Amino acid sequence: MTSPVICQDRNVSNCIITAIDVRFRLVRDILGIPLYHAYILATIMEDGPPRAFSAACSVMPPDFVKHAILDFFGVMLGSPFGYLRAVAIGNKFVKGAPDYPMFPFEPSLNISIPPDFPLPRIFENLAETSRKIEGLQLRFHPLGQNSNSFIYTLLLRSGLFPTKSHLPKPPVRAPGWGRDLLF
Questions:
Q1: Which mean pLDDT values do the consecutive 10-residue runs of the chain (183 residues) have?
Q2: CA 9/CA 110 separation, integer angstroms
Q3: Which of 76, 120, 174, 182 has a beta carbon 3.0–4.6 Å from 148's, enabling a disulfide?
Q4: Spatial CB neighbours of 27, under 8 Å, sequence gap ≥ 6
Q5: What count of other Cβ atoms lies within 10 Å of the Cβ of residue 118?
């Protein structure tokens, strides 16, 4: 089940995104390789907390590392992680929210918004793309079809970038980045 689209449930003028940060949280270290999970924090024109866009697996198996290694070698049958699901679609980013930072400084990308871009469309594009991806019920794969590819697809479909090559690269190792889930 998707998270509610907070801004679209109210006056869309409250949903004007003025800044976008993509944050990267360290999830696991697998075989000495740190892996990160991406999520979006969007600053809204109104006062108040930023809005979040994020995804995760629907099931977290206790033996995550074992299954991630099997996924890396392409020998994982099915997905013990369940489906890729949206956990935040424009939700307020407050204490207790998914991805609320445990550490004050996480690596991030600041996404530039072109001055002539229609600001109300950004939130609508991010929310619509989130719902489309979740509606596909894609199997979650920790090193491919995951939260990073979810965020990459949101940015790609946001309308802010003329082509894939214009999307910025993450400052950390983020498996799945560069994979368009709606292609």
A1: 45 72 86 86 82 87 74 71 87 79 82 86 92 93 89 94 92 93 92
A2: 27
A3: 174
A4: 35, 36, 37
A5: 11
